User: Fold this.
Amino acid sequence: MVQSINSIPAFDIKQQYPTIEAEVNKAVLEVLASGRYIGGTAVTGFEEKFAAYITTSECVACNSGTDALYLALRAFDIGAGDQVITTPFTFIATSEVISAVGAKPVFVDIDANTFNLNIQQVAAAITPQTKAIIPVHLFGEPVDMTALMQVATAHNLIVIEDCAQSTGASWGGKKVGSIGHVGCFSFYPTKNLGGCGDGGAITTNEPKLAERIRVIKEHGQKNRYQYQEIGVNSRLDAIQGVILQIKLRYLDIWNQQRQAIASRYHEFLSHIPGIVTPQELDRGEGVWNQYTIRVLNNKRDWLRTQLQERGVNTMIYYPHPLHLQPVYESLGYASGQLPISEEVCSQVLSLPMFPELSQQQQDQVIYSLKEVSSL
Ligand SMILES: *Cc1c(COP(=O)(O)O)cnc(C)c1O
Assistant:
């Protein structure tokens, strides 16, 4: 029976604003009146609060998650002749920055249940040219950082955590972004801590590294009008700084709401034949930027259409693995080389997930999936 139902978006960032509207408006108007649109306490205040939240001694704010990753690679002098191991099942920004600094991305396969890097494959891909690993805590689910850090330490490799989708997640009780040498965060509006525009940050416990990153992100300027290396311009705006300070106070509540939705999805969907719900590792506490199921037997696209007819909108993150993208043709990867990633790309379907998703909407997602799966 198909009832007349309301359409449920895959995500809806409009719903958050009314809940913090008064605070945000006040803070933004203060910035507008102050004339201090770049830097100042709006930004340093955010850096301090974010470092405290992630439990690192340092935080450097920047323009985006992409810049955060780029700046981290630059600060470690990673470039031509170096290899950086990462996952092919992520947003292009993760590998794009490796190429941007002149290094070579080395893609290794993932684990189908967590969607994250397979640590054995990481170990097997290490060569004398390998300089760093970029694990991505995809969809908010932490990578097994104990195993990853063991491999990295044994081979003296740098670990740059891509935390763009996992602000607030933790592994073994430690916040992601505080476990590797640096953590790179994005405040793109759809991320768990999303600004009202672009934004990013780098966290680390190494003051010297933070200092170097500040130089590179400010045109390579060490002292005023003295340039010691080629840099870039990468700033978090003052307006984003005050908005993010407010939103940071709500992040844990919003993440708990995401976790509650994920628990209900898991409870009601994990036994449906033909679909596989995401698996959380025991020591990980995920923050569910996405709740992504796998649809077996080549039925993903069909199921997606069926859900849409029932008012349930879904997303496909990501339809193609990075190692087979045209831009990486020159790396010489062949179809079938990273089979899990390739198969997963054809199976994944991300269900509606945002903190304000009501119980009734969750029920509609669950009911619709059950109904469609029995067809
Ligand atoms: C969003 C995202 C980025 C890039 O962040 P931007 O702020 O959009 O530049 C990097 N890596 C992953 C995994 C992401 O999801």
